[in-house]
Amino acid sequence: METNTITFDIPDNTVPLTRRLVSRMIGGLIWISALLGLALAFLMGFLILRLALSHLLSSTIVLMISTGLPAFIVGLAFQPLKHAIFKIIENHLVFQQKIESCPDDTNLFPIPDNLSGRQIGAYELQDVIGRGGMAEVYQAVGNDSIVAIKVMHSHYLYDEENLKRFQREGEFGLGMIHDHIVAVYEVGEIEKVPYLVMEFVDGEDLRSIIRRTNKYTINDVTLWMRDICNALDMAHEQGYIHRDIKPSNIMVRPSGDAVLMDFGIAKFKYATTHITGASVGTIDYMAPEQIQNSKHIDHRADIYSLGIVVYELLTGLLPFEGSIPQVMYAHMNYPPPDPRDFNALVPEKIALAVMKALAKNPNDRFQSAGEFALALCR
User: Fold this and answer.
1) What is the pLDDT of residues 155-171, one digit of tens each?
2) Is 265's pLDDT higher than 70?
3) Residues involved in catalysis
4) What was the pLDDT predicted at 15?
5) Are 156 and 170 in contact (CB under 8 A)?
6) What strand order describes the sheet that includes 250-252?
7) CB-side exposure of 16: number of CA atoms within 13 Å?
8) Which of 105, 152, 160, 161 lies closest to 282, judged by CA?
9) CATH: 1.10.510.10, 2.170.120.40, 1.10.260.40, 2.60.40.10. Which one for 204-377?
């Protein structure tokens, strides 16, 4: 087993965004149409003004007015019209297919109501230990134990889709008992606000570990992935597909064990009803087929996402970076760079295993998480 320390410079997560590719193409077509329209308006203005003034002024003045005034109007409208067209395209046309991402940076969200000190059942809520777009997580004490209680933001109570997701996370959690999956002990409501009582994991998520340090070893990575693959195999055998495997959803206990959490957008393979929305997940970690339609995927999409996580752990980089359309297009069309291009200490067998996990065609990937773990650890 390799014990080489992984060293790399943590990259700046702020990637300069270029104009979205898809909107550029659509906007360009509409912009050409707008220019043709302006040209037609210019010609009509020229003819109308010339006709109206031909009997009143000299031909030289008529020519100056009839050409200068429409040109002045076109000049004033040029830049505002251009920006308006691209704004409409980017905001309304390109993203009609809803990409529901789960950002890792919780500072993007407003601070919700602070429930510290409140009582939920037998538990007293203490400090906020996690916060996301849909809920916040409190450390709580009661029944001689420490737990984590996830409380949905009250402003989502009338959002049927997010309410279903929160409830489904509780249902999935109650049905999955595994050493490497965060346990859900109880599902309930307080003042019509749903909550989950969960296992308290005293540890750090992989996102924080990647950002904080680069001193973990390749052996650490393989052991963490062995735990997560073990958890995924059990979830997949029961028909669950996580759909949001990423570093912030994997915790590492002080003992070194890794734990998978947050089944909020998980899919049950045999479900007859579906949450609406064409694509759900976090775009940097989504498999090509999941980007196209996350309702019609199988467990191998999770293996692709986990391959991205391993890639990032080994190199400190994502295989594809850029704007949302650029990353989407790359996932579906470009092969990832070999991780050894960024970290020469990565063993060949591990690099090959990661590249196989990131195959575009699900049939070319490992067919189970367990197979991926064996390739990483052998």
Assistant:
1) 777 778 778 888 888 88
2) no
3) 244
4) 33
5) no
6) 204-205, 250-252, 258-260
7) 1
8) 105
9) 1.10.510.10
